[in-house]
Specification:
The protein has no helices and 5 strands. It is mainly β. Strand 2 and strand 3 form a beta hairpin. The model has no long low-confidence stretch (mean pLDDT 81).
């Protein structure tokens, strides 16, 4: 499923400051990050400044995750 996340606070994992922008996800991969991405015929989720980041921590399968 293709999803466009609009207007999120994006953290890129480098330690740089977050920025507002859009993330286009195709299947299980991030295809594009930027501002003002056009949705076309995909599902759009307006995240309104919520924090977005790639998965920075992987838990071994079967391990309990505590948040």
């Amino acid at each position: 499923m293709d999803i466009l996340l609009k207007n999120g606070k994006i953290y890129d994992g480098t330690g740089a400051d977050a920025f507002l922008g859009d993330i286009l996800v195709r299947g299980d991969r991030i295809e594009k990050i930027g501002e003002g991405l056009i949705s076309g015929s995909i599902r759009v989720l307006r995240v309104y400044g919520r924090s977005l980041t790639q998965r920075l921590v992987r838990y071994p399968q079967g391990s309990p995750a505590v948040f």
